Each structure stands twice: as structure tokens, then as C-alpha cells.
């Protein structure tokens, strides 16, 4: 090999070695690792939180036991009604439920409803004639209902067009028919459910026919959660949910301060006002009378108060103003059986003297005339038997229990032996005898619902029998206030602290509250009033008032005069809510009193979420 060739080979080798080294030292480019997918964007649910005093005993808007602002709110937003009040309180046809409703015959008087073909429950069953039938049958046969008079005059409910048209037949012309069939309930779910009229609605509403549905009732936390009803066929609710939250005064004030609560409707009173004072101009407040008057129902068919003189004596002993001042100082004093103090045209109808104001001398005269004598120690007796009265309030109704205690204190001071009991409210207004549960040991009972959301039950009092068995339940004699009540002992209440619904037509209301309908072939045993009152002399006047398009003032005055004389009840006061709003809450909701019959949550489907 020549020198030139050898040099060439060395050069080429060196170049190859250099290239190989370069390839060996160069970094190897790796593919980039896959980037994780971004987390899904979940928008926070839009909601309004409403502060309330309590959740109430249950959610049937047709039951005295369940009468509360929360039940009114749920009925307004969840249950379908053929007619609803407008901003001025005048009834307007709700075309999302019925496209027409009119009188189609006067002989017999018949009202025909054409139901919206799209209207359906959230359970996917249609809102139909069977829902009308169910409500009619329950209202005429069940005790402890609200405004049942109109349903008593219905003789038949007929279905047409596959249940999407309804003919309601009356036994006589009934001009107030537009007030009927509000708060319809889902018959398909309830008609065969055990205890459907009361028990199935203590834990919520099992289906919705409105813009919201009940998603959960958590009694332990004190919350009812309403969510948008995605199956609602009309304009959907703007908010995802509305939460009704039970809060005490101090907790409410703190919630409003930090933005956890947007609006509230607690019972107006000094404790709430004092707690909210620290918020200053950060909130606005306004009073709003509730559609409920608190009465004392005096039992007239049993026991010592079956004597009208003893009822009048009790009325003369009680200082109603002192009771109101102690229990509900911001409430409106009630001095009439018909209109509530907040209603246009209200005027006090109480006669001069007792029971408008306490009169111990009159009470002593009346008790003496009834055969009672007062011993050296001041106690009233009939022979050797003490005058003993049982005062009862629904366990879940805190203000009512306070009223019962205040009444008992005054009667004891007057020499009458008194026992206070607090059975479940559903029992108190439907059964003749109730378990003698003292208020101090009562835990408000609840029942879990099989539908309508999650329910967190709380411990309950001893179970009691249903209304069908109550008529045969023996009553025990009252134990002295200081005595020990045997477990499950039963008593018959002489005085019941009772909510009275107001806001509807005055004639049917008076007939519902104080009338005693005659038995009919289809209803041989109509339910009695919770206090057992029935006046043959007053009944024709009440029937005439109920059947009148415009009640006669003279008959109204007669009814009030007879009721004050017979005293089946003693009006006390109309409670008032304090409507509270933060600035963002007010701007988003326009929170206000609303019509008396539907309350402050009227129109909540149009509320938007507050912006801080």
C-alpha cells in the first residue's frame, strides 16, 4: 500500500470514528408524555337560602296539624292549583294546570275543567281527574282539615277525555268554587299508601306538579331542599335549588352577615329583632302577617266545657292580651271569628266585658251557676270532684305549646286544676283521645317518606292509633299537674291550641270552622270538628253565608254574636313574619310578603342567584 493510500485510509477512519462518537453522544429525542385531561368544569348550583323558624309537623297544606309557613311555601312551589291569587289577591286561572274552568250547568250546578294535556307529576303520571277525586274524598271524610265546606257540597267528580277533563257536580249553586282544588296531591302515589293523608306527607311531598320538587327533608339538620323540577312542562325555574333552613335568631344573624343566608322569614319578635340589630343597614326588614290565626278551641261535646257557662267562665278568666304579650308580642290581637286582623274590612266583634277582657267576678258567677263551689284554698270543685281541664298543643308547634303553658298558668292561678299535654299534632286534631305526653318530655315526631327525597327522622314519641281507631279509645281521667302520668295514658283535651286558616272567602271559612254538616247517604258520619262544636241554631246561618256570592253583613254579625255567646273557640292573635333580606338577596329575589294565601315564596321560580 502506498503512503498516499495509507494516509487516505487513516483520514477516512478518523472521520468515521468522529461521526460515530458524535452519533453516540447526541441526546435521543423522546416523545412528550401525554398531558392529563383538564378536570370537567362543574358549575356551582345556583341557589337561594331562606331562613325559617322551623320545618313544621308535616307538609299537607289541607291539614290543621301541618299549618306553617314552610308548608305554605311547598304548596305554592310544588303542588298544582287550578286557580292562584295574583299580586292583588284576586284568583286567576293557572293555565299550566287547566286551560279552562267554568260553570257548564246550573241544574245540577256543575263546573267543568279542561286540564292542560302536558300537565304531569314528576312521577310521570298525568295530573288528571283522579287527583280531583282523591282531594274531594279526603276533604269530606277526614277530620282536622282546612276549609272543607266547599267539598262537602260536591256530590260527584266525573272524568272525561281520558282523565284530562273533569266535571264537578254540586248539590246546590256554590259561587266560591274557584277556591276549590288548590294544592292537588298525587293520587296515584297516595291513594293506596298506608296513612297517606298524614303519614306519607310528614317527610315531604312524594311528587311535584310545579316548577320545583322536594329533593330532601333533613329534620336533623333542619333543612328542606327544593330543586328545579326538570319534568315541569311550563317555564322552568331559574334557580337550581331553594333551601329552607331552620335557624335560631343568633345563627340567622350570623348567616346573613357572612352570606350563607340570603333571605329569611322568622316569626317577628324581640329576640329576632335584637339579634338582627347588629347588621344595621346591611339588611332590610318588613313585617308580613301570616295566613293563620291562633285560637283556643274549647271542647263543647265532652267534659266540663260541654257546659257553655264553664266555657264562658274560662273565657272570663283568661287575659288574652297577657298571653299574646308573653308568647307572640309582635302578633296582631284577634277579636273576631271571621276576618283576620290584617284583612281589609276587619273589625273587632267581641262584646264589651268578658271574654274581650278578663272579668274574674263574671267567671265566679258563671261557675257558681254551673254548680261549682270554691273551697278555702281557692280550688273549684263540683261536689268532691275538682274542676280539672286538659290543655293540649301539637308537640311540633312550639308557639302553640307556649300558649298552652301560659293558659294553664292563668287557670291554675284561678283555682282550676290543669294538665298540659303535647301529643303529635296530627293526633291532636284528628283523634278523640291522645297520649298524655307532657311538653317537657316531648320530642317532635316525624315519619320518613317513601318518596320525595331523603328524610332524616328524629326520635318520636310513643306511637298512637290512627283516626279510624280513635273513636273507641277510652279516655282516662286527668292527672294532677304534679302527678305522674302513666306511660301511654290517654286523655281527651278540653282546650286545644288550634291554628285557624284565613284568607279565603269568609262564608265558607266560618262554615268550615264552626259548622256541623248533616249526614248524607254517601257520607252517613261526617267528621266532627276537633272541638266537637255543633249548633243547630247557628247552622242555617252558616249554610246561608257559605252559599252566598257576597255574604250578608247582617248574617255575618249574627254569626259573630252567636259564636261569642257559645264560645266554641277563643281567638287570640295573628302571627307575623319578619321578612329579612340582604342587599344581594333582595336584588335577586324581590323578596316580599306575597298574597296572603301563597306567602313570601310566591314567584320563587323566577328568582335568580344573589351576586355578592
Strand proportion: 15-25%
Using only CA atoms, what is the Rg? 33 Å
- CATH third-level topology of the domain at 293-574: Dipeptide-binding Protein, domain 3
Assigned CATH architecture of the domain at 293-574: Roll
Protein name: Peptide ABC transporter substrate-binding protein
Keywords: Signal
GO biological process, one term: peptide transport
Domain Solute-binding protein family: 97-429
Question: Could you characterize the architecture of this molecule?
Answer:
- The protein is α+β, with helices and mostly antiparallel strands.
- It has a domain at 293-574: Dipeptide-binding Protein, Domain 3 (Dipeptide-binding Protein, domain 3), CATH 3.10.105.
- 26% of the residues lie in helices and 20% in strands.
- It is built from 17 helices and 23 strands.
- Strands 1, 8, 9, 10, 11, 12, 13, 17, 18, 20, 22 and 23 form a 12-stranded mixed beta sheet that branches.
- A hairpin with a 2-residue loop joins strand 4 (98-106) and strand 5.
- Helix 6 packs parallel to helix 7.
- The longest helix has 23 residues, at 3-25.
- It is globular, with a radius of gyration of 33 Å.
- The protein starts with a helix and ends in a 23-residue tail after the last helix.
Amino acid at each position: 500500500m502506498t503512503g498516499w493510500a495509507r494516509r487516505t485510509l487513516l483520514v477516512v477512519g478518523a472521520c468515521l470514528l468522529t461521526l460515530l462518537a458524535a452519533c453516540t453522544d447526541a441526546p435521543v429525542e423522546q416523545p412528550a408524555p401525554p398531558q392529563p385531561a383538564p378536570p370537567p368544569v362543574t358549575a356551582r348550583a345556583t341557589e337561594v337560602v331562606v331562613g325559617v323558624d322551623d320545618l313544621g309537623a308535616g307538609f299537607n297544606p289541607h291539614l290543621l296539624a301541618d299549618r306553617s309557613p314552610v308548608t305554605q311555601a311547598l304548596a305554592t312551589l310544588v303542588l298544582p292549583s287550578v286557580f292562584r291569587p295574583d299580586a292583588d289577591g284576586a284568583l286567576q286561572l293557572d293555565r299550566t294546570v287547566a286551560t279552562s274552568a267554568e260553570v257548564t250547568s246550573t241544574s245540577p250546578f256543575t263546573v267543568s275543567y279542561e286540564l292542560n294535556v302536558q300537565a304531569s307529576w314528576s312521577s310521570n303520571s298525568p295530573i288528571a281527574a283522579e287527583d280531583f277525586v282523591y282531594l274531594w274524598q279526603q276533604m269530606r271524610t277526614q277530620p282536622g282539615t282546612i276549609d272543607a265546606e266547599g267539598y262537602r257540597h260536591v256530590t260527584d267528580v266525573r272524568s272525561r277525555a281520558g282523565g284530562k277533563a273533569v266535571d264537578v257536580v254540586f248539590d246546590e249553586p256554590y259561587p266560591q268554587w274557584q277556591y276549590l282544588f288548590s294544592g292537588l296531591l298525587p293520587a296515584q302515589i297516595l291513594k293506596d299508601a298506608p296513612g297517606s293523608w298524614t303519614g306519607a306527607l310528614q317527610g315531604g311531598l312524594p311528587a311535584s306538579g310545579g316548577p320545583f320538587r322536594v329533593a330532601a327533608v333533613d329534620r336533623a339538620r333542619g333543612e328542606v331542599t327544593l330543586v328545579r323540577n326538570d319534568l315541569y312542562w311550563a317555564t322552568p325555574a331559574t334557580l337550581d335549588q331553594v333551601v329552607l333552613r331552620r335557624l335560631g335568631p343568633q345563627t340567622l344573624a350570623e348567616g346573613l352577615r357572612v352570606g350563607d343566608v340570603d333571605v329569611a322569614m322568622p316569626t317577628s319578635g324581640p329576640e329576632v329583632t335584637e339579634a338582627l340589630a347588629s347588621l344595621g343597614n346591611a339588611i332590610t326588614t318588613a313585617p308580613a302577617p301570616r295566613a293563620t290565626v291562633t285560637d283556643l278551641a274549647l271542647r263543647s261535646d265532652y267534659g266540663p266545657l260541654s257546659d257553655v257557662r264553664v266555657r264562658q267562665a274560662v273565657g272570663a278568666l283568661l287575659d288574652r292580651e297577657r298571653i299574646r304579650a308573653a308568647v307572640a308580642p309582635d302578633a296582631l290581637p284577634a277579636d273576631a271569628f271571621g276576618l283576620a286582623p290584617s284583612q281589609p274590612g276587619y273589625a273587632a266583634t267581641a262584646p264589651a266585658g268578658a271574654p274581650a277582657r278578663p272579668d274574674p267576678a263574671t267567671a265566679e258567677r258563671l261557675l257558681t251557676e254551673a254548680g261549682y263551689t270554691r273551697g278555702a284554698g281557692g280550688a273549684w270543685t263540683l261536689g268532691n270532684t275538682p274542676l280539672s281541664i286538659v290543655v293540649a298543643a301539637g308537640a311540633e308547634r312550639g308557639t302553640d305549646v307556649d300558649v298552652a303553658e301560659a293558659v294553664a298558668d292563668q287557670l291554675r292561678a284561678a283555682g282550676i286544676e290543669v294538665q298540659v299535654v303535647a301529643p303529635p299534632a296530627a293526633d291532636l286534631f284528628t283523634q278523640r283521645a291522645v297520649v298524655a305526653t307532657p311538653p317537657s318530655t316531648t320530642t317532635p315526631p316525624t315519619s320518613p317518606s317513601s318518596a320525595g327525597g331523603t328524610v332524616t327522622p328524629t326520635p318520636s314519641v310513643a306511637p298512637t292509633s290512627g283516626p279510624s281507631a280513635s273513636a273507641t279509645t277510652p279516655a282516662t281521667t286527668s292527672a294532677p299537674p304534679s302527678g305522674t302520668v302513666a306511660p301511654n295514658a290517654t286523655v281527651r283535651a278540653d282546650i286545644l291550641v288550634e291554628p285557624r286558616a284565613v284568607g279565603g272567602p269568609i262564608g265558607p271559612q266560618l262554615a268550615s270552622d264552626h259548622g256541623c254538616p248533616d249526614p248524607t247517604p254517601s257520607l252517613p258520619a261526617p267528621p266532627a270538628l276537633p272541638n266537637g262544636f255543633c249548633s243547630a241554631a247557628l247552622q242555617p246561618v252558616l249554610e246561608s253565608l257559605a252559599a252566598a256570592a257576597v255574604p250578608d253583613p247582617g248574617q255575618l254579625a249574627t254569626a259573630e254574636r252567636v259564636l261569642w255567646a257559645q264560645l266554641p273557640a277563643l281567638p287570640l292573635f295573628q302571627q307575623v313574619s319578619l321578612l329579612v333580606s340582604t342587599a344581594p338577596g333582595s336584588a335577586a329575589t324581590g323578596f316580599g310578603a306575597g298574597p296572603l294565601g301563597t306567602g313570601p315564596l310566591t314567584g320563587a321560580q323566577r328568582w335568580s342567584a344573589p351576586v355578592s
